[in-house]
Design goal:
The structure is a homodimer. Chain A is α+β, with helices and mostly antiparallel strands. Chain A has helices at 4-7, 15-32, 68-84, 88-103, 146-160, 186-201, 225-237, 251-254, 297-308, 317-322, 325-332, 339-343, 349-357, 370-376, 378-381, 401-408, 479-482, and strands at 35-36, 55-56, 59-60, 64-66, 111-123, 132-139, 212-218, 243-247, 255-257, 266-268, 278-286, 312-314, 362-364, 384-388, 397-398, 417-421, 430-434, 440-458, 463-478, 491-494, 496-498. In chain A, strands 3, 5, 6, 17, 18, 19 and 20 form a 7-stranded antiparallel beta sheet that branches. In chain A, strands 7, 8, 9, 10, 11 and 12 form a 6-stranded mixed beta sheet that branches. Chains A, B: Homodimer.
Chain lengths: 499, 499
């Protein structure tokens, strides 16, 4: 079907069809926990003093088409991506060690757990006959939406066969024939990663021995609680493991590291049962990823307490740093030393080439190089962005402004810039979304596919104990969100139909 | 343990324990669909124009103790109760036939489906050594809360073993040791009843043949949607049956009875897909039970259209009438003709006696009778209510006001009154509830246990095709609700721990 699949999708809805779908999606969300706490701009604190109200997560009425080749490539590469950052740790750790060596304490836990999500677009420039997979971002901390994403896939799957055997919930459309979203095992995969770490932690290091548990560290005023609770429920009901949630602001009050014990086990005393003690096998951070999570010295102290403990961290500070954009840029560089190969020394060169293909092409502007050619031609410049070589080195220059800009600066300055191909999502993609405030909005959209992966490795030696791919996330945004429009915008959870 | 179990239950909560339990219950409710739409007094329409907000169903923090003997008796008797009303239909039908004969049309569907709930209290008068089971009400239409009740049992069961293997969600209490609420199969049982009727309906009676479906007929502004959707989901996902929900106000617009077809199949055209036609096998009424559901002639017309169609009704008009209090009073009468026996002619006399024991004792005030003795003695009168023999014959006289009242009227009038023993729930029962608006309230409570049963029978001959018991409901009300208190009251879904 190619690009044309987007042009007549989704099928139009008459008012009765729209009313039915919206009502069904609203009710389904409540019944199945596809929910968020409402934003304060929607429900004021005064009118919900006890915080009981909840509303549907923003969600599309239809699954979005996605190229099968891109989906398969993304899932195939995930376990390679999972491994990519293991040795990057060494690189980043030079920075970290400056601090670490001051303390001169060393690590007591060498196992490290990553729950990752690699985000892609189906790059579909107008001159390409087939779409290709391009990475937008690689998340190494608090990779979210696995819980709710599985629910959206279930919602759309049910709607596609509703009522069973006589589907009429959606108007008919060729894309719906014998087609359902691929299985979405995000909850199972992410929970299995945590359970594997818990098991690898082994017996209690305390004397006397304590029961071990997994600790979710979460933000104050979290609205996305039910996404986290999907993993919590799987760990509790399927893996039968003790799991607790703790606000990051409460870490210092309710956890401690036994300084008398060289293994430094992390002890958790639940606020509601302070006489009970659990030893934390695995700390799962759903916080501490943004500067706004560190408001006081206490927050840094709390993070440090977790880090120096024997608990397996998901992620470690090093692993979080390894996920920074600057590292990913180094990996993506086509020119210069082959960092990618050095970090994945045991990987099949063919697979490495496929991995590299998911990076957006980058070029320097050296004389007679391809980059210079692409940047100076207004037609090809239109698909690119010009970025300064170093962070903070200037503003990005977009598209057709590039030739003019280059001509306005001395040619000797050109080497400070690199040219990157812009990722071009399918231009005709459309969908309809039910926002959390109940507004239903349709229009042109940009879809981002996330693929989940989990890895458990031993930092001492780099041995990989567990490396899995499983589950995905489709997020669909109204195009005008990126252009600064707010009033009519939406950013929704979605699912996919492969074509 | 006897009555004493109530005196130190539930265990007291300190502020941290209470905060933990309330947060856990709030979040669990959202994640698992233990939800209602908020009352307009809590969330005004203006602040939720699209009706997306939802909140937890009112729910107790703790399961309530309930005497095991009473629970077992209630479940044991349910299939007998299910049958009780089959022949009562004949009795009531004399009234109905007056109307029916005018139309002179007759029934085209002789199968009748009942989804019942028999409500009881654990009658615990201070002079009794053991509690006994007394029926409060027998519901024959729209027996609700089966869906949410199963969830409350799951919630309390999970809390009792949370985290798995090291339970600390509740303070410890002897009643919690190796004790969980009994299995609650309300969703499975009620759905199986509907699925059995659907199957018994058989092939389409239309030409050409149409796919058959179950139709839930529901009220406008229903807040208890997610209770209904639990059955809907079970029918769709487990039984794989087409199910639709339709507002009672839309019956005449979207259903029709083919007058040219003597079988009178009920045809449903979904508003969102009017070109699709389904033949309704089974109509499940979650409306039409109260006078307020019949606002216009159109509502009566709609009910009549369903009634005269070939669809199996749950319930039929006759069955709904049979559930009226007046009929149940006739059955309960100790004196006079033995209606109970005549309606259950094939029932073991021993079982019949057990059934009769669940009725609150009723006495006439004949000379030298037990009733007169109980009514005139202030001590025994205190456990009774004096009711006029016929509906509308006067107001009830309660407790110690009875002797004085009788002495104020001529003895010749006494025969117009009957004396009924009041049901005395355990006086020391207490619990804590989270209301839908988030208020947490504790105090003295009255608990009512409902037991679900389903029956499918053929009105032509009275043959029973299906008769099952399964699932239960515990509803717990603050005592002051019954005394007219509103501000501090609650009425909550609950579960039980047997003792």
């Amino acid at each position: 079907m190619g690009e044309s699949v987007y042009s007549n999708y989704p099928p139009p809805l008459n008012p009765a069809q729209k009313a039915f779908l919206v009502t069904t999606v609203k009710d389904w969300a409540v019944q199945n926990g596809l929910m968020v706490r409402p934003a304060p701009t929607f429900v004021a604190k005064e009118s919900n003093p006890h915080g009981v109200l909840a509303t549907n997560a923003p969600v599309t009425l239809f699954p979005s088409p996605f190229p099968r080749t891109c989906f398969e490539e993304a899932t195939a590469l995930q376990t390679v991506y999972n491994q990519l950052l293991i040795d990057v740790d060494d690189f980043i750790s030079r920075l970290w060690n400056v601090h670490q060596s001051v303390k001169n304490e060393g690590y007591t836990q060498t196992l490290s757990l990553g729950l990752y999500r690699s985000d892609y677009m189906a790059h579909s420039p107008s001159d390409a006959s087939t779409p290709s997979l391009k990475q937008v971002e690689f998340n190494t901390i608090s990779s979210s939406f696995g819980g709710l994403s599985s629910l959206v896939a279930s919602l759309h799957t049910e709607l596609l066969d509703s009522p069973p055997g006589h589907p009429i919930a959606y108007p008919s459309h060729p894309l719906f024939e014998s087609n359902v979203p691929p299985e979405n095992t995000a909850v199972e995969t992410l929970s299995a990663g945590l359970a594997t770490a818990h098991k690898a932690y082994g017996l209690s290091k305390s004397t006397p021995s304590l029961p071990t548990c997994i600790l979710f560290v979460v933000q104050e005023n979290e609205r996305n609680t039910f996404d986290q609770l999907a993993l919590f429920k799987q760990l509790t009901k399927v893996h039968k493991l003790p799991v607790f949630r703790l606000l990051s602001s409460q870490i210092l009050d309710h956890t401690s590291v036994q300084s008398s014990n060289p293994s430094r086990p992390l002890i958790y005393r639940p606020p509601h049962s302070p006489e009970s003690q659990f030893e934390v096998s695995t700390v799962y951070l759903r916080c501490f990823y943004a500067p706004s999570d560190y408001n006081t010295e206490r927050d840094w102290e709390a993070r440090t307490q977790l880090e120096r403990s024997a608990a397996i961290k998901c992620p470690t500070v090093l692993n979080q740093l390894a996920g920074c954009k600057v590292v990913q840029q180094v990996l993506a560089e086509d020119a210069g030393p082959n960092h990618l190969a050095s970090f994945l020394d045991n990987t099949d060169p063919h697979v490495m080439a496929r991995l590299r293909k998911t990076f957006a092409p980058q070029y320097d502007l050296s004389t007679n190089g391809r980059g210079r050619e692409l940047a100076l031609n207004p037609d090809t410049a239109a698909n690119h962005v010009l970025k300064p070589q170093r962070e903070g080195g200037g503003n990005n220059i977009y598209k057709t402004a590039i030739p003019e800009f280059l001509n306005s600066i001395p040619e000797s300055e050109w080497k400070r810039w690199i040219l990157m191909e812009l990722i071009t999502p399918p231009s005709e993609a459309k969908n309809v979304a039910l926002r959390s405030d109940g507004e239903v909005l349709g229009g042109d959209v940009i879809g981002e596919l996330g693929v989940y992966g989990t890895i458990l490795w031993d930092q001492a030696g780099g041995k990989v104990l567990h490396n899995e791919q499983g589950g995905w996330l489709m997020r669909t945004k109204a195009k005008d969100v990126n252009e600064g429009g707010v009033a009519t915008g939406f950013s929704s959870l979605d699912s996919i139909l492969l074509f």
